[in-house]
Amino acid sequence: MNYYSTNRQAPVVTLEEAVLKGLAEDRGLYMPEKINILPDDFFENISKLTFREMSLVVASAFFGEEIEQTALKEIVDDTLSFETPLVPVKDSIYSLELFHGPTLAFKDVGARFMARLLGYFIKKQGIKDDIIVLVATSGDTGSAVANGFLDVDGINVYVLYPKGKVSAIQECQFTTLGKNITALEIDGTFDDCQALVKAAFLDSELNEKLRLTSANSINVARFLPQAFYYFNAYAQLCRAGVKGDIVVCVPSGNFGNLTAGLIAHKMGLPIKRFIAANNQNDIFLQYLLTGIYRPQPSIQTLANAMDVGNPSNFVRILDLYDHNHSTITQLISGYCCPDDFIRQTVKTCYEETGYLLDPHGACGYSALSENLRTNETGVFLETAHPAKFKDTIEDIIQDTVEIPERLQEFMKGQKQSISLGKDFQGFKDYLVRK
Ligand SMILES: *Cc1c(COP(=O)(O)O)cnc(C)c1O
User: Fold this and answer.
1) 254 alpha carbon to ligand 1 midpoint, in Å?
2) From its phi and psi, is residue 257 left (phi > 0), alpha (psi between -120 and 50) or beta?
3) Which terminus of the chain, N or C, has fewer Cβ atoms within 10 Å?
4) Is the distance from CB of 280 to CB of 286 less than 8 angstroms?
5) List of residues 6+ apart from 410 with CB closer than 8 A
6) What is the CA angle 60-66-72, rounded to 5?
7) What residues are annotated to the active site?
8) pLDDT of 314 strictly over 80
9) Cα–Cα distance between 55 and 52 in angstroms, integer?
10) Counting atoms of ligand 1 from 1, which one is nearest the CA of 388?
């Protein structure tokens, strides 16, 4: 299957080109040319399938023409080394826990899949030069990408992060790995890190010498596999005998996660409607209300992985529904959860149900609590483990939050990082010398 650019000014490309390029030349985002509807009997029997089995069916619908079934099965099985359990929280509200992967956030799924897919292409094509993955991070993306790509032959990852601006828990997840992962501690802000990565992709000399690629959520290999766990949520609802209309609420920043859910819906997954939960950065909600998309500088909030003022995947949503505002508002509603709501929601939910939310999941839970109608069952995506935001959560609930063992393991490791300034020449010299 080929991939087209949402701007439609660039040629269609193969899966491999779309993955290696990330962004199309016309600065559009790649989309699959076809979204296959899955057969009725797949949905009728889904409750009998394992997470890996149903995900292979979904993956085949996208990647089955390019990758032989045995190789694809290996990629899927290897990616999904953990479950995404559906946990009842209150009344008809369920939490789809996406934090059981190595770095305790949903980004593990997309990052692991992309790493394995790239590894497959490298082997198959006999690509000789190492592929260099550059990723700028304010915390979560760096850890998921670094861990996803760890030990994948032929790929070197450079994680750029702002010195002194990433929490210790986050930092240890990408600075202690070694091997093919290098952490670059930049004397600047997250925006400086992102500017360095962007400048590297635009530098023709660098691109002649090195094979550069990016691993952020605009990459099709990162965002499409996120459809897998929407099917898994549905299978678990079927097993629990839940009837009625299903509403899925997605805490959203760059909107990659929601877009994957919309794609699952287009493949036939019976979801009645979606809610996009924003924090104070509610550009999408404003679009739904007014029909006008007006990017804003991002505001810092407690749900910091959603502090996005110009969501990169918004164009994909427009593209999926032919830019039709009324089609979009019929299927998706919006929600804004300011910091004081997040605090109140984490506290109340913990006291009333014993379930501990993280600040991002809290936006989702809050949206469902206020918007669910009778006869509807709500599922919110719990996108990260609360322990990743230990200080914030402990301050809210006035209780200690236990750090899971796999997170503690990272904290035992030795920090290794290379300090660089925020000037491009220094960064470029470093990459060329490597
Ligand atoms: C990245 C992230 C989000 C936002 O996901 P998008 O796909 O960018 O909308 C939400 N919660 C957590 C914990 C994240 O790391």
Assistant:
1) 7
2) alpha
3) C
4) no
5) 169, 172, 173, 176
6) 50
7) 107
8) yes
9) 5
10) 13
Q: Whose CA is nearest to atom 11 of ligand 1?
A: 383
Res. 169: pLDDT tops 90: no
Task: Please check the confidence at residue 127 and state whether its pLDDT lies above 80.
Answer: no
% pLDDT > 70, the chain: 100
Cβ 306 under 6 angstroms from ligand 1: yes
Q: Is the CB of 67 under 6 A from ligand 1?
A: no
- The answer to whether the beta carbons of residues 150 and 179 sit under 8 Å apart is yes
Among 96, 135, 140, say which to mutate for ligand 1: greatest number of ligand atoms within 8 Å of CB.
140
Sign of the four-CA dihedral 348, 353, 358, 361? negative
Predicted TM-score (pTM) of this structure:
0.95
Give the three-state DSSP class for 379. strand
CA–CA separation, 361 vs 158, rounded Å?
Answer: 29
| pLDDT at site 139 | 76
258 three-state secondary structure: helix
102-129 burial code (b ≥16 CB/10 A, e <16): bbbbbbbbbbbbbbbbbbbbbeeeeeee
pLDDT at 194: 85
Q: For 187-230, give the DSSP string.
A: SS-HHHHHHHHHHHHH-HHHHHHSEEEE-STTSHHHHGGGGHHH
Q: Which atom of ligand 1 is nearest to the CA of 259?
A: 7
> 204 phi and psi, to 5 degrees?
-65, -35
Distance CA 327, CA 314 (A): 15
Residues 6+ apart with CB under 8 A from 330: none
